[in-house]
């Protein structure tokens, strides 16, 4: 038993209870009708009642020791992708296999705490096995398991998959810290087939220009055959190429130089025409949607010397398809400058050439983005432009990572993108303080794991143009990191193009604004942000905003959520096809409407490569300390795990404290003692 207060308080409690009992005994001794023995019993009852009540004031509690058995944690991850069914055993996987999987989970549950996963494009805990996912991201599943079981490490994982991986990074680089036991599903037989492996084109292209549509064609066991690849624009054939398959395991890339004849969202269909038998013709067709625009934004980047940061920005801007980025030297004449945004790399504010360029940009209301990597330039511009203040040590530099400002108002990123930015490698920054003053900061500096108020990039809204400052060196490291982590530069490109898009867009007088894009991918979350302004051009979000979508002659109605001073809704992953949208709201009797069309494009890699990759499964299990099993060896795997002496339960001791003041029986005991005392007094006194 333990007490909330010191044990020394027990002695005063006992003394006080004895005193009360003594005075009770002394009082009863003066009554001739009550025998002395009964007087002593009544006094003892009073002593017990007083002692119990006084001890309860010390808040006593009983300590109960429980011994708990914690089973070892076992993850069972089931591949839920469509490719598992694309073989001769599809009926087995749709019927008997699911019952067999449930029986396996039940058998393992006697020894392990089993946590079932399903994975494909996403990971779902306790998900339903449907084999309908149109992507397989094994690395994402392994990363999810490592991230969500930090406090309690799994002892092992069973992964049941065909090994076909067509999303995310290579799973060989995301091995778990616990043994991975793989079970091979699917079919390893290579059937004759021809399929479109991928189709790629810039989402945005300019009117009256040529742009490439790249098509990857793959073939299995079709050596010597000829395939015709046909490109159609809105159902009309505009180009075709013939390919001769030169080997059994064949891969070739075709490029169609396509002319953007009219603006709008154009649908292109790619089809393979064959005159021979193959495994399936479902994968012989693909489509892609391209937005043709006639009002592009020009970006001029001006520098006095080459720098890897400049190359990183130029590449990110040009691959967007929405902007043209050209490099210029400060010695050029700026009388004919045509740009929506000028990016200046380490200019000298005292240089007359820069002053001429800044004057010309001011006349034309062209936005400016200063990228300042040297502390001398950072200090000079703080004195000349007076938009920010610095207190720098001219002798030293330091390394800083970034922390995103969650209240940044000008554009938004997804949670996945924000998490990616948090992992960016550090940049070189000057030692000291950089105070952005009235600037809206996107990233703050984090130095030695300590967040600071020093800005990394800030934006300034001036009367006639927009201005941004970036303080630091090493943007090219962020671009390399994006490729290292994701196998592409998309994360870095998204950051740069959102900055460029905001700066290059001139201020508008529109009061009802949305960011619905013309084209989304089928596996991409469609997120819609809306802004509503009153007559004074102040953001308001009191009225409700309604979104109506029409798809396949069905109408869907949504009410947008309020997000700070704006509106936002996540429509999630949407089926491929054409969507007509209508945004509407009513601000104090004034009706606002926005109508348009967007498309969700589809390309399902699960119907392409359908040969199970057992080699990948063997490598993953071997390199993680596990073993590979065929699907018919599932019972053998269960016996192996059950007989593994290293996978033992953990016994833990847990102490539970039960407050005596909350035990109802104790109150009944006190009441019983008082009743006995009252009964003895009444019986002998009468």
Short description:
The chain is of the alpha/beta class and 686 residues long. The chain is 26% helix and 38% strand.
What is the average per-residue confidence, as pLDDT, rounded to a whole number? 83
**The CATH topology of the largest domain:** Rossmann fold
* Largest sheet: spatial strand order: 17-16-18-19-24-23-22-20-21
Stretches where pLDDT is under 50 for at least 5 consecutive residues are: none
Q: Would you state the CATH class of the largest domain?
A: Alpha Beta
> What is the annotated CATH architecture of the largest domain?
3-Layer(aba) Sandwich
Termini gap: 42 Å
Principal-axes shape call: extended
Number of helices: 14
Question: Care to count the β-strands?
Answer: 35
Estimate what percentage of residues fall within beta strands. Answer: 35-45%
Q: Characterize the quaternary organization of these chains.
A: single chain
Radius of gyration: 37 Å
In terms of structural class, how would the helical and strand content be classed? alpha/beta
Integer count of domains: 5
CATH superfamily of the largest domain: Class I glutamine amidotransferase (GATase) domain
Q: Biggest β-sheet: count, sense, barrel?
A: 9 strands, mixed
Helix coverage percent: 25-40%
